[in-house]
Amino acid sequence: MEGKKVIITGVPGVGKTTVVNEALKNLKEQGIEYQSINFGTFMFEVAKNDNIIRDRDQMRTLDRAVQKRLQQRAAQAIAQVPGNVLIDTHASVKTPKGYLAGLPEWVLREIMPDIIILVETDDDQILMRRLTDETRSRDKEGSRSIAEHQQFNRSIAAAYAMMTGCTIKMITNADFLLDRSAAELAEVLR
Asked: What is the per-residue pLDDT across 84-94, written as a single tens digit (0 to 9) for each?
């Protein structure tokens, strides 16, 4: 049986990976297995193997043609993964020249997701999470810029759904309510 292909997205600092890990742990206890794949990790490994970059945060500054090639190669690899697959990625990437589709047509055509999940929360909460996360090198931006990025993600997710026929689900990952967010995600993935 072919599994579900689920894409989960959110702006940097929203906590999507944390929600995913908690939801998948809950599902595993119920006998439901998903392979969690980070799209950026696939792209990073390709770029690192080609000696294009040294660290993952450099990827958003790469030339658009280079990013496109990396996206295509990563999507082809992910499309070959059997069973239920949860693809952790960004709906869009904020670059110095504007927003770049995180899942352009050539990526979506390979993956053909069943559902796209947008993890969101209040802009101020994301800003505080970014400011206190010392594990990543993030661009400095304010709440208004974060709000714009979240709104752009909603818009581009709608375009992705039009191209693939998938559904879109929004999950709020508010501070101190991780259990609620993870339970909601697990319910969608069942």
From this structure: 999 999 999 88
Where does the pLDDT of residue 137 fall: very low under 50, low under 70, confident under 90, or very high at 90 and above? low
Q: How far apart are the first and last CA of the chain?
A: 15
Q: What residues contact residue 26 under an 8 Å CB cut-off, 6+ apart?
A: 182, 183, 186
**pLDDT above 80 (res 139):** no
Tokens of 40: 């950026």
Q: Is the pLDDT of residue 138 over 70?
A: no
Beta bridge partners of 13: none
Residue linked to tokens 């059997």: 82
Contacts 24+ apart (CB under 8 A), 104-108: 104/68, 104/71, 105/163, 106/68, 106/71, 106/72, 106/75, 107/71, 107/72, 107/74, 107/75, 108/160, 108/163, 108/164
Q: Can you tell me whether residue 156 is helix, strand or coil?
A: helix
**φ and ψ of 134, to 5 deg:** -85, 0
**CB neighbour list of residue 59: distance below 8 Å, 6 or more residues apart:** 40, 43, 44, 47, 53, 67, 70
Which spans in 50-177 are helix H?
64-79, 105-111, 123-132, 143-164
